[in-house]
Amino acid sequence: MAEEKKRTRRANGESAIYLGKDGRWHARVPMGYKDDGTPYRRHLTRPTRKELVDEVRRLEKQRDEGSARQPGKPWTVAKWLEHWVENIAKPVVSENTYAGYEVAVRVHLVPGIGRHRIDRLEPEHLESLYRRMQSAGSKPGTAHQAHRTVRTALGEAVRRGHAAKNAAALAKPPRMEEDENEVEPYSVDEVQSLLLEVNKRRNSARWMLALALGLRQGETLGLRWSDVDLDSEYLKLRRNRLRPKYEHGCGEAAPCGRKAGYCPARVQVRRETKNTKSRAGRRAVPLPGPLVVMLRSHKEVQARERVAAGNLWTESEYVFTKPLGGPLSPNTDYHDWKRLLEDAGVRDGRLHDARHTAGTVLMLLGVPDRVIDQIMGWEPGGAARMRARYLHVTDPMLKEAARKIERAIWGAPENLAVDKDQDNEG
């Protein structure tokens, strides 16, 4: 026993294991260095040597892999999420992505699991949170957004050594029920009905860019005349129009009592556009002849509006503007789409359904996948997944497939009739 208690000099980086006076086995595991440069060792104790050796090996493995918790007071989930979203995520993600993260952290994650220590958070804590959120009325998509947010935040915590595992990566995410009827692309007849109606409206080409080429709302509203080459019949997509975000400008001394977006002295705090972040998103898109004609006419109308408005015109270089210039608001654009559907007598749908329609029409026309990916702006690595999501097999396509099978197997309809007559004679 005396020999077991005896400590011997060990090489740097080697753990020290010894039997203490309390009858328990102890270990000092070198884990690196503290912020001030002094060595940092973790102290472990177990009742038996075997248990201690197993724990030492586990900790050494974490240390060597870089996943062990670093020295200092452990983070709570709330403190880490608040630090992560403001200081780590915000500087590097888009405004829209940050807004989604911030809401998930503030509204759902901090109140739901914030008191746990980050190194003691378990998958079951998160799964319980998702169930509580849905029981309280949150949609599965909202719970799924919270799951994606905490998974990303904890992934960063693991990389920095604040937690040994990512509990969210182990947790079962909320099930997203796929509604087969959720997205139904507009038929060619419905698109033609919309075309008749848009020709009566201002900014008519805006809607045909969505229905014919599948441009996203932000891409269309962020389009500038310098991006459009009507002679060569193509346009370049380089930026997205962002949703405005406002803060009060009325001051605390005389608050208006309204939401920031309705404050008479509101201040815009978000930039108008951002550059497209992916290489696939920065793309050239060909313009069909009728769209070139619509855009030429639109440019002439806009020039007349500029002259008529005089000093009231807000110069912006955007292709689609308000009647007095300046960029269109995404919210106003959305409501214009809803009125367009109603006036055209076409069933209600999301503005994004126009993008599904364009992709499906491209597939129906037999456009090669590579060209569809270019027009729609899909990254090569995820293009197959996006095609499965956006390109819909419609009833007419299924019926045409049935007719092709009929012709291939049974031959032409007249041959089918001859075969039936022969069977009857037999």
Could you explain the architecture of this structure?
This protein is mainly α and 426 residues long. It is 49% helix and 10% strand. The protein contains 17 helices and ten strands. The protein has helices at residues 2-5, 49-65, 77-89, 95-113, 123-135, 140-159, 167-170, 188-198, 204-213, 217-221, 289-309, 330-344, 353-364, 369-376, 383-390, 395-409, 413-425, and strands at 16-19, 25-33, 39-46, 228-229, 234-237, 239-241, 246-247, 267-268, 273-275, 283-286. It has a three-stranded antiparallel β-sheet with strand order 1-2-3. A three-stranded antiparallel β-sheet has the order 4-5-10, with no helix packed on it. Strand 2 and strand 3 form a beta hairpin. Helix 5 packs antiparallel against helix 6 (140-159). Mean pLDDT is 83; it is low at 1-9.
Record keyword descriptors for this entry:
three-stranded antiparallel sheet, mainly alpha, 49% helix, disordered N terminus
In brief, what are we looking at here?
The chain is mainly alpha-helical and 426 residues long. The chain has helices at 2-5, 49-65, 77-89, 95-113, 123-135, 140-159, 167-170, 188-198, 204-213, 217-221, 289-309, 330-344, 353-364, 369-376, 383-390, 395-409, 413-425; strands at residues 16-19, 25-33, 39-46, 228-229, 234-237, 239-241, 246-247, 267-268, 273-275, 283-286.
